[in-house]
Amino acid sequence: MTTPSSRTGLSGVDQFFTGKVGEGGRVRTGITELDEMLHGGFMEGDAVMVAGSAGCGKTTLALQYLVNGVKFGEPGIYVTFEEMPDQIYRDAKNLGWDLRKLEEENKFRILCTSPNLLLESEGESLLDESLRDIQPRRIVVDSLSHLAMFVKESELRREAYRLIMHLKTKGISSLLVWESPQMAGGSFSITEVGLSFLVDCIVALKPVEIESSLRKALVVLKMRGSDHDKRLREFQITSTGIKIESAFTNYEGVITGSPRKVASEKFVDLFRGAAEKRK
Ligand SMILES: Nc1ncnc2c1ncn2[C@@H]1O[C@H](COP(=O)(O)OP(=O)(O)OP(=O)(O)O)[C@@H](O)[C@H]1O
Ligand SMILES: [Mg+2]
Q1: Residue identifier of the C-alpha nearest atom 14 of ligand 1
Q2: Please, which residues have CB within 8 angstroms of residue 258's CB and are 6 or more apart in sequence?
Q3: Which ligand is nearest to the CA of 204?
Q4: Ligand 1 atom closest to Cα of 54?
Q5: Of 50, 53, 59, best ligand 1 pocket probe by most atoms within 8 Å of the beta carbon
Q6: What are the DSSP calls for 205-267, one per residue?
Q7: 116-169, pLDDT tens digit by residue?
Q8: Which domains does the chain carry?
């Protein structure tokens, strides 16, 4: 029996950087505007990171991606280290997704485990068992940040790499959740531990304070081998999931946490102010 670690040793570095499974195919998220931003969807077999600070919608986006996958005939597995399954079923139901039903139909599975069990089991791992049963095309790991609690910092990249490679060699598209610290001030870093280069695509979610109200922004930061929308788009979490709206075109500095109106907008404001005074 092989374990994730034995099958995905670091010997396949070249394969990691060159080997794309199912080249050209797109994996639709089912969120129309996001698919447009991604020019059709994620690249098939890619490892995607969804990064963002606490409570900004990472789990919602990840579950929506899996539920929509089932609609497209692509079974999915949701691996979680953080929440109790009952809570996930409940929260998903409140968003209109009946995960238990999908599980009964064998199109979906929640795998609630600890990272060390996922990575280091003897014989057939829990993950392998689920991969065999469900034959997933998509997998979500929520979250890689929890992996960081179980392994030494120096080993985190290796372990994350091992997991990513395990899924890649099976041709499964993976979506890995990463909790970024609050991104404020002038700097913006996705992971302080250097995981960004391991993934093919990064979608960042970020709360932004604009004129005393808290709004949410989504941006595709990178996508290997494909063009994509570079704009920051506003989004909402609604009772049916993530809804992407227009771009923050009138602001700059949104991503670094200090949004200000671009010069043309300031001019419009000044002009409007002057016009008001003349009334
Ligand atoms: N049914 C719902 N209707 C509307 N908004 C909801 C609903 N469920 C959750 N939300 C919103 O989504 C937010 C949490 O989203 P989610 O759990 O996806 O975030 P997260 O980034 O995964 O959070 P964490 O860092 O805690 O894991 C809530 O704070 C709430 O604002
Ligand atoms: Mg979450």
Answers
A1: 55
A2: 185, 186
A3: 1
A4: 25
A5: 59
A6: EEEEEETTEEEEEEEEEEETTS----S-EEEEEETTEEEEEEE-TTEESTTTT--EE-HHHHH
A7: 777 665 677 888 889 999 999 999 999 998 888 888 888 888 889 989 999 999
A8: 4-278 (3.40.50.300)
